[in-house]
User: Fold this.
Amino acid sequence: MNKKICFIGGGNMAEAMIAGLISKKYDASLISVIDRNKDKLLALKKNYNIMTHQSYGSVIEQSDVIILAIKPQQMTSLIVDIKDSISNQLIITVAAGIVVEVYEKLFVKKVAFARTMPNTPASLGYGATGVYFNDKVSSSQQEITKNILQTMGIVEVVKDECEIDAVAACSGSGPAYFLGFMEHMVDASVKKGLDYNQAKRLVIQTCLGTAKMAQESDKSIGTLRQNVTSKNGTTAEALSVFEKFGLGDIVERAINANIDRAKEISEELTKGLV
Assistant:
């Protein structure tokens, strides 16, 4: 891939993507970042030897891929500034909550657009990102997008934009769910006498090992769970408590609540942007 990539915004997600690209030996001279924060640009330049800019200049026109890595609330003023410089470039957004239709209204034209939903483990190369393409994105541009996102972890393409909300509820917010569960496991273990750091190490390693086991197996997650649960044993007894209090229903209700809130936020943002 020999494309000029321009990040607008040099925050955490932009840096995670840049770090991933550089780790895959992508040519640093083809990567640019535009940000008003001089200190942030200096740090990115020092760490990755990429091109940095405090203003747009001609960078937008000369780039093949534009990645919008700013807060949703800043999107309107940004697009007003750059829309006349956009012609055939591929636009990728990592901003949450804004639907493609809103972007097209802001650009006042159809653009090749990829809406993505990364998650925080992307900064470590273990991300899970969902992406939706509008009908202006060519097959080659789809491959470019996937190649960029795969530097942060796995990528799943969804056919309907509404499915991005499901991705957000699953993998986008998922790290917080797992961390919350881990937190309770540690706390419960400490109450039973384990040292906090000891319990933390055990829980983290158990999560890592279980995820790896699930990743490398061709069996369903349900089957794997059954395989480690002896009939009438201690694990079965613990799982019965989860079932008694409706763990499956709780998880489903949480996912639905996440999606409902995402729709509310999207509507709020839409009203504020267009």
